[in-house]
């Protein structure tokens, strides 16, 4: 079931009750998921614990003095801001301090059309089907990295993709004419069929074509990326690739090792110093996942990503000291810039009933940030809501 809303269905917060011309936004949150994900089960035979050690291109990205991964901060209200963007209900009804401005709500977003998008009804139907399937499905089993990704496909990405149809007009019709959609027999699919049968924005797999580097390496690819459109847009990859994501195995990336990040454990990060030096590789699982995620953000463009080890979720926001164009004009920097790094959320348990709606809020915010004229970092971690990990 969904958490309660205001009297008579009115949406509290934001600018008050919405005008009837945008009442579909007032109703949208009713369809968002609020249920526990089934906890995966480890099969009797599994792969051995192993972490992904960074390759040279990733090490170069994390050790770059100006734009490398040199600091770790903790954002105490990241989850709450994601939730509050799409839901009028309290994030934590029993103990919740109100969010300070800027408090953004999807129903206040500039430029939203008066009528719901064409795929609104289909998105609602898909969410209802996915909720029903969740109630009768057996617990998912996990044995290796591929099975972890399969679990996210079924329980996370399918839900996120259905939810995106509630909010956005289909951008699939704007596909790059040089790289059209094709049938498996390689016939080009007409644009009118694309618009009916394919939907963007969506979470999808990444290929070398999406890499910012014109000569990409074999590293720097996330499990799935949120694509605002199917177009290749390296002129503004932050806008077209707004969210990255990664799934890991709990026996390779234990929850305790991930908690070490937030707690500022010296085996992961020493406060006040650069996390990574040129050529340095730390085998601690918390350290290797940070390097991997930073490399992916650097290679694909998003300034926010989420990751899970099937026991808990984290959101990580990239904070850079300067705009890319400004960086190009600054030239080499002798010392690491300790303002460049990640801001990490608290962990949210896999079976927390709020997690899906929070990830929907994150997806909407990452796309809408450009409409609001703000960075995702300023939206999710405004002044005063982040601090050095371990403090």
Q: How do you describe this structure in short?
A:
With 391 residues, the chain is α/β, with parallel strands linked by helices.
Question: Could you walk me through the main structural features you see in this protein, from its secondary elements to its overall organization?
Answer:
The chain has 391 residues and is an alpha/beta fold. It has one domain. It has helices at 23-28, 56-63, 78-86, 120-136, 145-167, 191-197, 237-240, 255-262, 285-300, 324-330, 355-372, 376-380; strands at 41-42, 71-75, 141-142, 202-204, 224-227, 243-247, 304-308, 312-319, 341-344, 348-349, 386-388. Strands 2, 4, 5, 6, 7, 8, 9, 10 and 11 form a 9-stranded mixed beta sheet that branches. A two-stranded parallel ribbon has the order 1-3. Strand 7 (304-308) and strand 8 form a beta hairpin. Helix 2 packs across helix 9 (285-300) and helix 5 (145-167) crosses helix 11 (355-372).
How are the SSEs ordered, and which strands pair?
Elements: H1 23-28, E1 41-42, H2 56-63, E2 71-75, H3 78-86, H4 120-136, E3 141-142, H5 145-167, H6 191-197, E4 202-204, E5 224-227, H7 237-240, E6 243-247, H8 255-262, H9 285-300, E7 304-308, E8 312-319, H10 324-330, E9 341-344, E10 348-349, H11 355-372, H12 376-380, E11 386-388
Parallel strand pairs: 1-3, 2-9, 6-7
Antiparallel strand pairs: 2-11, 4-5, 5-6, 7-8, 8-9, 8-10
Helix pairs in contact: 2-9, 3-11, 4-5, 5-11
